[in-house]
């Protein structure tokens, strides 16, 4: 398999999941700024959407979108318990979290990375994010991970929350989140993924 990624982007969550899974993969850098691979290939010829992640299988088939890719990987290695079994309420809770992270958190950070966004737009985004963080903090009360047990949703949440320091969002007011981030950072696969992308030494 090939994982097309951009440094520190949401594709990092897929890299973490792949490392947790033990499945072999090759990581291919696809810059979200130039939309080119390192060999000059136009990334749009691989993914017309132009963004990461994209998982390419050995037969040439391709899968996009974090929520879909995360669940695909988890289902390849059921013994690793990266996701609850299909058809169970815990699996739908996983999908609930993946959807929330993607639509309510991930997208909310977008304006904060846009140099052309006005202060009014950025302040509005921060207000929305802080409202979502208060909800997440509440949901983590008394739990080590989102579902209680670790799952692929935690990888996605960790990566999105990890952007906070770069865009002026303080996590300190949310003690359950800060404890959660420390737990996630202690996972060997998280450490390995961050090192692979040059985000930590």
From TrEMBL:
Class of the enzyme per the UniProt entry, highest EC level: transferase
Transmembrane annotation, as ranges: none
EC number, as in UniProt: 2.5.1.18
Gene Ontology molecular function: glutathione transferase activity
Keywords of the record: Transferase
InterPro entries xref list: Glutathione-S-Trfase_C-like, Glutathione-S-Trfase_C_sf, Glutathione_S-Trfase, Glutathione_S-Trfase_N, GST_C, Thioredoxin-like_sf
Keyword Calcium: no
Keyword RNA-binding in annotation: no
PANTHER family: GLUTATHIONE S-TRANSFERASE GSTA, GLUTATHIONE S-TRANSFERASE-RELATED
Protein name: Glutathione transferase GstA
Annotated source species: Piscinibacter gummiphilus
